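User: I'm writing a short methods note and want a consistent example. For SH3 domain-containing protein, I'll paste the sequence; you return only the structure tokens, no commentary, since I'll be parsing the reply automatically.
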Amino acid sequence: MNAIVTAMIANLHAIPQEESELVDEVLNGMPVKIIANIDANWVRVQTTYRYEGFCQKKYLIMDEEKTNTWLQEANHFIIQSFADILQYPQIQSNKIMTLVKGSIVRFLVSKGDDSEWVSVQIASGEIGYARRKWLQPKIAKNRLPDSQFRENVVQTALSYLNAPYRWGGKSPLGIDCSGLCSMVYMLHGVLIYRDAKIVDGFPIKQIPFEHLQKGDLLYFPGHMALYMGDSLYIHSSLGGGEVSINSLDSKHPLYRKDLAVSTLTAVGSIFI
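Assistant:
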């Protein structure tokens, strides 16, 4: 059975207790698969990228008909860091809900091709208005030349710059290393594993270091980053405290000795 997240952010925990470790976050409008009913309050779920954790039922719609309709018709991502969904198409309007980058909405209608506002439905079923420029249609990676895809993922990663580090986080409110990389790829139509390792069955494959290009992924022990070109990479690290840029070049002022070429465990790419 599938379900849809209706909270701004639904926490996935290591065990079915609120105080337990946060292993992932699932954003508003994202689907999950219910794999076990634990009790009156908790279910075990699996995300679309096969990550598992325990979620509170109060954050989910678990109605098969509504979920199936949503999966067919919810077709846009929020790409603004924080986007208010308003009751009316004017900035002074009452707020229905605030969504974070990566949330999924159903595009209903615009007030004209040149209108600033569009009508959207959020996962709860409520209908409101958002700025057109805050929405991005779901896209398939294969619609773009490889070079454009690489540039796009780098620019999207840069839009998270300075977001605070949060273990298990996946939004501009707080994000970890694999959360950043997986969200960046997801926003461009590619689902990768949400962890700092290469896993069979996902599109990221290991490549030689000398084949490294912009948009590929760097894997360190327990950490990952997105390569920007010119020896620079962007990542969210516990040591740095936020999404930041560092360099693999030992002579560069942004070099980090603990994340050197010699410490790499793998380089990953979808372009093989």
